[in-house]
Amino acid sequence: MKLLFLASLLFCLSLSAADFTGTWAGNFDVLMTDGQSMKGKVVLTLTQNASELTGTVGSPDGPLKIINGKVDGDRITFEVQTEGPKMAFNLRLEEEHIRGTAKGDSDGTTVSVKLDLVRN
């Protein structure tokens, strides 16, 4: 009985133990409510310490510091202050990819970003 409990506990811990630390690179697609869109490359450099997440988001203008980074199982959330809007990221680890969205508002225009990244 103790062995079954221990095996179940270890299995549950392994499911919730996503590690986001590292460099992740991939693509982003931006769509704005005014119809403008663009695509590009992005790099996330992440450091996870339990449920705290720090790091940077690489952009053509240089790296931007992650603010309020949090880890919850296979999900991460954080914010980045760009030259325009503050962007709120909601990402999830799926099959060795980090995928999700980021959203922000700039002068009444909503900016929505889709991301798909893999660990380098």
Strand order of the largest sheet: 1-2-3-4-5-6-7-8
Q: Which radius of gyration do the C-alpha atoms yield?
A: 17 Å
How many H/I helical runs?
Answer: 1
Largest sheet, strands/sense/barrel: 8 strands, antiparallel, barrel
**Span between termini:** 42 Å
Q: Give the beta-strand count.
A: 8
The arrangement of helices and strands along the chain is HEEEEEEEE
Assign the structural class, choosing from mainly alpha, mainly beta, alpha/beta, alpha+beta, or little secondary structure.
mainly beta
Summarize the structure.
With 120 residues, the protein is mainly beta.
Descriptive notes:
The chain has one helix at residues 2-15, and strands at residues 22-32, 37-49, 52-58, 64-72, 75-81, 86-94, 97-106, 109-119. The chain is globular. The protein is built from 1 helix and 8 strands, in the order αββββββββ. 12% of the residues lie in helices and 64% in strands. The protein is mainly beta and 120 residues long. A hairpin with a 2-residue loop joins strand 2 (37-49) and strand 3. The model is unreliable at 3-16 (pLDDT under 50). The longest helix has 14 residues, at 2-15. Strands 1-2-3-4-5-6-7-8 form an 8-stranded antiparallel beta barrel.
What is the topological layout?
Blueprint: H1 2-15, E1 22-32, E2 37-49, E3 52-58, E4 64-72, E5 75-81, E6 86-94, E7 97-106, E8 109-119
Keywords:
120 residues; disordered N terminus
